[in-house]
Description:
Helix content is 28%, strand content 24%. The chain has helices spanning 26-31, 53-69, 86-98, 111-121, 133-143, 157-162, 199-212, 230-243, 255-261, 272-279, 304-314, 387-393, 433-441, 477-484, 513-519; strands at residues 41-45, 50-52, 77-81, 101-104, 125-128, 146-149, 179-185, 193-198, 220-223, 246-249, 267-270, 294-297, 319-324, 328-332, 346-347, 352-356, 370-375, 400-408, 414-419, 424-426, 429-431, 446-456, 460-469, 496-499. The termini are far apart.
Amino acid sequence: HLTSSSCALCAGREISSHGKDSMTNPLFDRLFAKHTGKSKPFLRLVDGTTVSYAAFLGLAAQIAHLLTQSGLQAGDRLAAQVQKSHEALALYAACVQAGVVFLPLNVAYTTEELNYFIEDSGARMIVCDGKVAAALSTIATRLGASLETLNQDGTGTLMESARVMPEAFPTVDRLSEDLAALLYTSGTTGRSKGAMLSQGNLLSNAETLAKEWQFTPDDVLLHALPIFHTHGLFVATNVTLVSGASMIFLPQFNVDQLVGLIPDATVLMGVPTFYTRLLDHPQFDRHRASGIRLFVSGSAPLLAETHVQFADRTGHHILERYGMTETNMNTSNPYDGERRAGTVGLPLPGVEVKVTDPETGATLPENTVGQIEVRGPNVFKGYWQMPEKTAAELRGNGFFITGDLGKIDEDGYVHILGRNKDLIISGGYNIYPKEIELVLDAQPGVLESAVIGVPHRDLGETVIGLIVAEPGQSPDLEQIMEAIQATLARFKQPRRLIGVPELPRNAMAKVQKNILREQFKDAVHAV
Ligand code: MLC
Ligand code: AMP
């Protein structure tokens, strides 16, 4: 065999450090392997210490050894409910390198919620905080899955076993269409669905965004998002990795800390609540923001008013983009060019966006409101073991029906104007009312319930529950609040329960939530 530069077979292809064709695991090679041996800091942690690319990849390799030695094979699922740490991020990298499908879970989920995700995915390994290990041991035993612990400070069985492993791992072959991650999103029927994301879905989107947003190795991204969702894991982290930049990696969002660290960064990505909280901070001003070249917002609607106030305060126009768990990012306001407040910008290169008639599926002309459909290399493979739900939302021609309503204006900017799905977005977290209604309906003395989102200054929307009592009963609302705590994650729990005599219904007997939303719009005030 000739060297890669003189071999016709290898021409134009890189050879990775372990001597294999670098395209055998495209996601690992393009995000991680190309940084092998680099002493450049990848992460700066909250205590000021740094983790170099080389050290991070060494950690990932050690974990990958542990995964394979535990019997995990390519395509097996690993469910992780762990606090944010650099070890937690290395676990993601290890899964990619070992060909294991990564299933990250919100740290707020209760044991009951976790059991569903773990069981549904058939996870072969569960990694969780030591505090919840006992609660998850039953399901682990039932599924024959191994259980490892990883605490926020890096302690726990996962790292204890991994640290003695070699710091290099022979990357497992994967194809672009192979699954890289399974991310659960709730459904309108109350049952969560696992969105299957392939290596190609994640890689194509990371490369497109890095280019569109002009990322370079000199960028420093201030990372304060959770890493169990698309925004913090795939948008923020993958874009940083693909461009060889670095991150200030914060364990959670804290506005004082953010204001203090903003001068050290060049990019911030956040949900709209980040921006309203920054605007509320007296020390956040033009001077503090002067080193940032890009503020990105997404996951929930950014009020045009926030966009304008932010520009007045800092001179920066927040770049709003639009995405979903199932599709990664679809549209973005331009980096160069007009960032139009109240819009989510233009379709990303390679992504097709159209607005259709919800009844007929026919494409609608510009400036006409309809349902938004998207197609492209970013769009997922379908819902895990749910062919009917997949067929209902993902058309045979590749277009995914997002459930968002909107229009495309004469300049091609996409406007999101509503939702065709019963969904509440609170502080960037999705909450499906049906899931909460099922829990409320099961409480003693409750005939039926309706859960709605009402405006909230800090979180955008927040949840309230309207309760209709069974005839002759007067359910104790405080007791209900207490009872649902074991079942529902805190962010899904209604901030208020209100008794009502009945629910308004249309001729089809469907609850008219628009009437309730109007009636109760002032039910909760921002704290
Ligand atoms: C926390 N709490 C919430 C909440 N977040 N309640 C409702 N909605 C939320 N989003 C609860 C906590 O349980 C707690 O309750 C109280 O609020 C305060 O907790 P905290 O830890 O102090 O949280 P806080 O700082 O208020 O968190 C707000 C936040 C956080 C905005 C920083 O929610 C967050 O990081 N959101 C980002 C979500 C995200 O990454 N979404 C991306 C999805 S991907 P109590 O009562 O016990 O005090 C996606 C695709 C795309 O949508 O396009 O990106
Ligand atoms: P999720 O299922 O958590 O990925 O949330 C996806 C949903 O978030 C989308 O279908 C939209 O309803 C919403 N969303 C994401 N980004 C934006 C945005 N910039 N503006 C309005 N809604 C958004």
